[in-house]
Amino acid sequence: MSYEISTLMNNTKDKLVTLKLRNTKTIQGILKEFDIHMNMTLEDAEDVSAEKPEKLGKILIRGDNILTISMDKD
Question: Which PROSITE patterns match (predicted)?
Answer without folding.
Answer: SM (PS52002)
